[in-house]
């Protein structure tokens, strides 16, 4: 009798408390319905807005990988040089699915189209008006949002194609379209919202229909067009389209000239979300009350048997709290206690994985591979926040925050590895040390903020001047930069240094003056095949000494160290 009384002392207060909680929560949800619904919509809109930004970044990356990779592929180079149009179309069409892009366009060294995968019968026209094509013909790889020849809104990367003798054969341009019905349907499924793409203020692709027909060809609301198109600003708010209210987000798409030539719209119908929220409240109430009945019945039968697994779980949690994640929590119960044990093991497993990924990332960073990062997307909730914070800290530790280049620490790790690798394989290694000429005078004349712009421009120019993935550049400190060139002799080092020097000299540094400003760099080069008794410090000092001679001999020069062989 006493045991039964004890059970009821637990069951009855617990059941009453849960019933009261379910009722109170249901009333609270009803009272706060409008506020909750609006909050949920805003949260969802924020989420898909962030997802859209990430998607655009991924599209830029896909086109860049496609254009650069194909432009360096010997078969592609041979095809551009020797193949006819039909062969070019067949060759490049094969790679579309591989690189997950919409199309390839191949042009000759004058910007004249040789072949298009998306319109094989249209060729021979000039596409020199596209910024990515002009950049590629100038020897630069660039990615821009712009209108293609057969489309109105795309992200396109252009990459130059060089023959074996270094002569420019033409351009390979890789693009992803946003102005097709298939693409907006894909984005609708991806984001869970209505999607529209505007060219200017004209709808060119949309998932919104009227009487079963797409509303393509209609124009953007003039007031919103003034904000998004004319002023190049994002817009969020409630918008009525065809009599339906939407929570909307309009993102201007900027071309190479900084103009909003297109807009991507995301919209969530308010009526659908409100109905879904009401349905969720009703379901929550029914599930809560039903769960209360089931819980009360089950609690009566399990109350006397749950203490042992709870004690086991308590001990396991004590181990985790004290830093021991290698536990073996075996809980055979198929009830709440069992679920708690599984959750505990999941926590321990997640923490173990996070620690393993951090350890691997640190190991890779010590090797100089600072691009390797743990995948924060594999974690959820606060674990993801922790992973994101770790990535941010890693970026601070290994990257220069002003220029985005690897920092001195990253360079020290990388050069040690490349030095050992070159010594083992008896291969040349070259080091370029660069210094912006008269940078102090530049800072004194135009201010430190303009000096920062100069550092960023020079850093980007150096990075874009390197053609190989194995080449490595970093900010050495102040106005000095370094470039590490594995498997490169003194002649190759000088050639790369000259290419960088010329590119910096020709680069326009943005400023208040529409004509821009310019800067020059002096470069010291050292190159050798490391020997077992060779010293890395001598190698670095040789490049530094060569840099000093370059500056002493008039600046804006390349000097190769006497150490180079």
Explain what you see.
The chain is 52% helix and 19% strand. Among the domains are: 56-177, Beta-Lactamase; 314-396, no CATH class; 408-560, Reverse transcriptase/Diguanylate cyclase domain (Alpha-Beta Plaits). A hairpin with a 4-residue loop joins strand 1 and strand 2 (113-116). It has helices spanning 2-31, 33-72, 74-82, 85-94, 96-99, 131-137, 181-191, 222-230, 270-302, 307-321, 336-366, 381-398, 408-425, 439-446, 448-464, 490-506, 536-552; strands at 103-108, 113-116, 142-146, 154-162, 168-177, 194-199, 202-206, 209-210, 213-214, 235-241, 244-254, 260-269, 429-436, 472-477, 480-486, 521-528, 558-560. The strands form four sheets. It has a five-stranded antiparallel beta sheet, with helices on both faces. The chain contains 17 helices and 17 strands. The model has no long low-confidence stretch (mean pLDDT 85). The longest helix has 40 residues, at 33-72. With 565 residues, it is of the alpha+beta class. Helix 10 (307-321) packs parallel to helix 11.
